[in-house]
Amino acid sequence: MSCGGCCPDRPIATDEVCQNWEFRCDSTDRTIWEADGDVIKPFGTVTVLVENSCDGVEVYVNDTLIATLTEGQSFSKTFNSLKKVSITCLKPDGSTGSICCGKLCMTVHYKKC
Question: Which InterPro entries match (predicted)?
Fold first, then answer.
């Protein structure tokens, strides 16, 4: 039996993600967003704003370095595939106990199973 186009495509859903992040400047990679396993082909725009940094903040999308930012800088880009966003707060030489912080804003489009 053939469906022959009797079923419509799954609609594309959109989520807005906005969250604050704050971590020690210890050069540890930290995941701040990860796609749910029940979504199909997530894509969208990622914006990262750095409010305070020690020695810079590295931004990774899908485990690829896409930007290194310092205090007051932001980065925004649209990706055709989104699986994970992570950051690394770089540790300055001889520094202890410093904090970096900022915001993550995303518009994510996907189909849900």
Answer: Ena_core
Q: Return the DSSP state at 3.
A: -
Can you give the residue ranges of every domain in the chain?
Answer: 13-112
The Cα 79–Cα 48 span in angstroms is 14
Token pair belonging to 76:
């925004």
pTM metric for this prediction: 0.86
Domain 13-112, CATH homologous superfamily name and number? Jelly Rolls (2.60.120.10)
Q: What is the DSSP string of 34-101?
A: E--TTEEEEEEEEEEEEEE-SS-EEEEETTEEEEEE-TT-EEEEEES--SEEEEEEPPPTT--S-EEE
Alpha carbon distance, N-terminus to C-terminus of the chain: 23
Contact present, 27 and 90 (Cβ < 8 Å): yes
Q: Hey, which residues does 24 pair with through a beta bridge?
A: 99
